[in-house]
Protein 1
Amino acid sequence: MNERLDVFAEGAGQSHNHSKWTTELKSSENIYENEEEIHTLEPNRTGPALSGAGDGKKGSRRAAAAFLGLLFVLLLTGLITLAFLNNKGHSEWKKEMVLSQTRSNNLSKELFQLQKRFEDMTKERNDLQRKLQDHHVQLGWVFYSGSLYYISSLKKSWQQSRDDCLQRGADLVIINSKEEQEFARRFRKLVWIGLTDNKTEGTWKWVDGTPLTTSYWAQNEPNGVQHRDEDCAEIKIYDLENSWNDESCSLQRFWMCEKKKTW
Ligand code: MMA
Ligand code: CA
């Protein structure tokens, strides 16, 4: 070691002539020679006590080193695999995100279009309903509480009256509330209503087949005056709530049709 220091000292302090460099190189070679020497001596440094373990100890150390190396390689492989999988997962997740975003955008567009279509169709429906209503009004129909009513200006028998209603896409009026009864009286006309006992005498039924539950017969009605065969109902005493009379079906009366509003 002293020799090495000397050489560097010489090199630094003295002139840069060729012989000096040669000396330096030679000295360097020497240094390595010494190192080799040290290496060859190494086993002896362990001392006599340890050298007793011999080749067996040497083998187990190699095995341990090999094991550690293998462990290191395995760990490295694991890490690389994890990094790869993570990266792969990440890119797949990103792809999924883009797809989801696209799908979401498409659905938003579709929703917007459907909303627009719904609005357009609602407008269209309202326009058609208005037109239909105007049409009915022009034909003499009156709107009241979800139904259309037609009050005739001619007089006919009960059956002819009913046929007229059927031709208009309606039927004779069915009165099933106090309000409807009041509405029907308001026209102050003697009108046929859709009530008859022509199937079974004494059993009054509405034209839709439903039985009579709430009735507004006038006082002493229905009386079925003898020899008149009074099987059809009319609104007669329209000034009173209880205004109905059973009358001979062949008599000529105004009539009232009802058409349920289906829109
Ligand atoms: C008429 C006819 C009948 C009704 C009575 C009431 C005379 O017959 O309308 O149906 O019951 O009047 O007085
Ligand atoms: Ca009567």
Note: Helices lie at 2-13, 18-45, 47-51, 55-138, 158-167, 178-185.
Protein 2
Amino acid sequence: MTVEFEAIGVVGGGQMGSGIAQLGLVHGLRVYLLDSDAQALARASKSISMSIQRLVSKGNISEADASAALQRLHCTSKLEEMKDCDLIVEAIVESEEIKKKLFIELDRISKASAILASNTSSISITRLASATNRPAQVVIGMHFMNPPPIMKLVEIIQGAQTSDETFLATKALAQRFGKTVICSQDYSGFIVNRILMPMINEAFYALYTGVATKEDIDTGMKLGTNHPMGPLELADFIGLDVCVSIMRVLQAGLGDAKYIPCPLLVQYVDAGRLGRKQGLGVYSYHKLPELAKS
Ligand code: NAI
């Protein structure tokens, strides 16, 4: 199957979906972006536009290309508008049940040759694919890293029935976006989160059991192991809710108690501390009120 990609659909306009949409736009595709929350969709459109403007100020693309890219963006509230898309990738909440419901809808509205992809961090592609009636080979994991326009990697996951043709077409699209592709078998957490999340969880245990302060845990891992961000800082960046969801998928899928999310991590999420996207996580991102000028 050789796919000439012209239009893609992105469902979910949060941190990941808006970044994936931006990649499609700057690489010449028409992009249909949908979010069930109208405000989130408006935020996504604004952040894409600002980000593309930044590319212009840095001299990475011309004004004319930026304006053409933004004209190719169609924000919509109707899935049906994605009916001609060559690939539809979902980046909605990390819940198997909700993603399955979406795949049933995507299966219904998309053209038969469309590739249906999931940006899931950890959920079984085989089970997501099984929610659809179309030939199972059209569902694949296309896992971008955060933030998608910057990070160089895309992890591609073939479900039990995903064909090699679908894999090759998806890989070609990721490469068109300038990404390096790695390929994972369909086991919980795939490659990156299978290794990353237990480390983040352990950092929460270190904080929970009073081994050190959050700053020292992060500095230890940054300077001691040459990571660009400490694990707690990274958890805030990913979203603490997303981290808990991934740990639960690892726990359920791999059946080992070592994947139980740390009680402190769970408590932060229960308290609504979701990380950077919401202003408070392990760290606070609220701007301090400016002192009144005298
Ligand atoms: P987010 O919370 O920033 O965005 C999710 C968006 O999906 C929200 O705007 C929400 O309104 C929308 N949404 C939820 N249910 C929907 C539905 N049924 N239909 C349409 N829109 C819906 O989440 P984020 O961080 O962008 O994550 C999205 C997906 O990407 C998850 O599966 C996550 O595991 C995965 N992912 C996240 C990474 C991260 O660092 N945050 C990295 C790689 C993958």
Note: The two ends are 69 Å apart (CA to CA).
